[in-house]
Amino acid sequence: MEAALRAIAGPRRRRILALVRDDELSAGEIAAQFDVTRPAVSQDLTLLKEAGLVTERRNGTRRLYRVRPEGLAPLKSFLDEFWDDRLEALKRESEREERKKRGRRD
Amino acid sequence: MEAALRAIAGPRRRRILALVRDDELSAGEIAAQFDVTRPAVSQDLTLLKEAGLVTERRNGTRRLYRVRPEGLAPLKSFLDEFWDDRLEALKRESEREERKKRGRRD
DNA sequence: ATCTAATGTAAGCTTGACCTAACGTTAGAA
DNA sequence: TTCTAACGTTAGGTCAAGCTTACATTAGAT
């Protein structure tokens, strides 16, 4: 998850993810969307691949990239758990408050 | 969301978030959980606060921190949308495949 | 007023991120 | 084979992240 987080921390990498979410695109097609040099985008792609967020498929001299949604699953789980646990904590808190009130009345 | 991402990219900051998720803790209590110096943790707390992930409440000379779950909401939305859109894309893909098959048969 | 406890802030160093320019590599065309 | 297209990789420079030490600040206690 660590790597995935660092990967999507870069705005351009998030845009790349969006690009290859629906369609399989070549490195060149992806790079053409941005102002930076092609090697810069190539490095982004390498990073995304190492983070498990995209897959690479070679076809002749071209390399086609596509999103790999499972890569974001751990992060999604982390957030969902965080939410659930937080709701649990809130529940415990309000119950504690409730007991306090009752105690006062008794 | 940018700031939130950079904030939770640090493992220690994620641990801090977990610490103050259920209980309100002072900077000192939080710093005591880690090996780095107190200023380092203080900087982490500042970062988390600026990212909107925790709230700070002063009580005398102490500062109490608590998680602010809304801070992670944008990131959660981003991931959820990503998932939904991805599912949509898959659906469109399979429909396209389906049409191809039918076309072949006709 | 002074002293102390609990923190934040600033300066300085080290390490890693990121970009560009130059070079290496692989697959297909001529 | 030779040439070319499409990429990746390396070297090097710049800027930001992150840690530590030293200093500043704020709120109570004496």
Order of helices and strands of chain A: HHEHHEEH
The outline of chain A comes out as elongated
Please tell me the overall pLDDT of chain A.
Answer: 90
Main-sheet strand order of chain A equals 1-3-2
Strand residue content of chain A: 5-15%
Report helical residue fraction of chain A.
Answer: 55-70%
Oligomer: homodimer
Largest sheet of chain A: 3 strands, antiparallel
Describe this structure in words.
The structure is a homodimer of 106-residue chains. Chain A is of the alpha+beta class and 106 residues long. In chain A, 67% of the residues lie in helices and 13% in strands. Chain A has five helices and three strands. Chain A has helices spanning 2-9, 11-22, 27-31, 38-50, 73-105, and strands spanning 25-26, 54-59, 62-67. Chain A has a three-stranded antiparallel β-sheet with strand order 1-3-2. In chain A, helix 1 (2-9) runs antiparallel to helix 4 (38-50). The longest helix of chain A is centred in the last third of the chain and has 33 residues, at 73-105. The radius of gyration of chain A is 22 Å and the shape is elongated. The N and C termini of chain A lie far apart (50 Å). The mean pLDDT of chain A is 90. Chain A binds a DNA duplex (30 and 30 nucleotides) through helix 3 and helix 4.
